[in-house]
Write a structure and sequence with these properties.
20% strand, alpha/beta, 45% helix, rod-shaped, 6-stranded mixed β-sheet
C-alpha cells in the first residue's frame, strides 16, 4: 500500500494542490503508518534454536565422517593398486637369487651387472658380490667387495709382483704407520684385505708396524718393503692416492676411503678380474 499512497501524494503535489511542506509532512505520516502496521518479526523459540543448532552440528559431523571415510577408501584403493602391481614381483632374498636374475638381465644397473660380460656382480645390503671359483678351483664363493670393478678400474697399478711368492706364501705381513691420523680407514682397508687372503687365498696375516714408536708396536715386527723378502701389504696414509707392486710388496697409499678403494683394486687384480 505504501507505494500507491506515495504515488498519489506525489501527483497531488505536482499539480500544485499542496505545498512542498505539506507534501513532506504527509509523506512522513504515510511512512510512520506503514511501519506501525508491519507484522512483528517472529522469533524462533529457544528450544527450536537449540534443536536447529543440533541439527546443523549433526550435519557437520556426518559431513566430516564422510570425508574421513572417503579418504580411507582412497588410501586403501591406492594401496591395493600398488600391491597388485607388485604382486608376484617379490624381491630376491638371497645373493644366489640376485645372480640368477642378473644373468637373465633382469636387474637395474645399480643392482647388478656383468663385468666384461663374464663376471656377475650384484649389490646386496650395500656391498657388491661376485660368484667366483677359488684360486685352486675347489670351491665356489660369493665374494664381497665394497666397490664394483667399474668403480675402481681406472686406478692404475704400477710395478710388478712376484707371482710365485703370491702362489706359494702361507703368511704375509700387514704393516702401517702407528702414528698416523686416520686409523679407522686404515683398519677397514686392512680388514677387507685380510678377509680375502684368509678365506679365499688361505694365507694368514702377521700384524706389523713400519716403526716402533708406540706401545702397540713394542712386541710386533717392524716391517717395510725394504727389510724383508716375504710377502707384505703396506698401507700408507698419504695426501695422494697410489697403488703399486714392488716385487714382494703390495703398497696402497691414500687417505680415508681411497685406501679402501685401493685395496679393492688390488684384490680385483689378484683375482684376475681387472688386469
Amino acid at each position: 500500500m505504501k507505494p500507491i499512497k506515495l504515488k498519489k501524494l506525489q501527483e497531488i503535489h505536482e499539480h500544485g494542490l499542496i505545498t512542498t511542506e505539506e507534501f513532506e509532512k504527509k509523506k512522513k505520516e504515510i511512512e510512520v503508518l506503514e511501519q506501525s502496521s508491519a507484522p512483528p518479526a517472529v522469533e524462533m523459540p529457544e528450544e527450536r534454536q537449540e534443536e536447529s543448532k543440533g541439527e546443523a552440528k549433526e550435519v557437520k559431523l556426518k559431513s566430516d565422517k564422510t570425508l574421513i571415510v572417503t579418504a580411507i577408501i582412497i588410501i586403501l584403493l591406492f594401496g591395493t593398486i600398488f600391491g597388485l602391481r607388485n604382486f608376484g614381483q617379490e624381491r630376491p632374498k638371497t645373493i644366489d637369487e640376485l645372480h640368477e636374475l642378473n644373468l637373465k638381465g633382469k636387474l637395474k644397473k645399480d643392482e647388478g651387472y656383468l663385468h666384461n660380460g663374464v663376471y656377475s656382480f650384484v649389490k646386496f645390503d650395500g656391498l657388491w658380490y661376485a660368484q667366483l671359483v677359488s684360486p685352486k678351483g675347489t670351491r665356489l664363493y660369493n665374494i664381497q667387495f665394497r666397490y664394483a670393478p667399474r668403480d675402481v678400474e681406472k686406478i692404475k697399478i704400477g710395478g710388478s709382483l712376484d707371482s710365485n711368492l703370491i702362489d706359494n706364501a702361507t703368511e704375509y705381513y700387514v704393516t702401517f704407520n702407528p702414528t698416523g691420523q686416520n686409523f679407522s680407514a686404515v683398519a677397514l682397508a686392512i680388514g677387507d684385505f685380510n678377509t680375502h687372503m684368509t678365506n679365499i687365498f688361505f694365507k694368514q696375516p702377521i700384524a706389523a708396524c713400519d716403526k716402533n714408536e708406540t706401545n702397540a708396536c713394542a712386541n710386533r715386527p717392524i716391517i717395510t718393503c725394504d727389510n724383508t723378502a716375504d710377502l707384505v701389504l703396506y698401507v700408507k696414509e698419504a695426501n695422494n692416492s697410489a697403488v703399486y707392486f714392488d716385487d714382494n710388496c703390495i703398497v696402497v697409499e691414500g687417505n680415508g676411503f681411497d685406501l679402501v678403494k685401493g685395496i679393492d683394486r688390488v684384490l680385483y687384480d689378484l683375482y684376475g678380474i681387472i688386469k
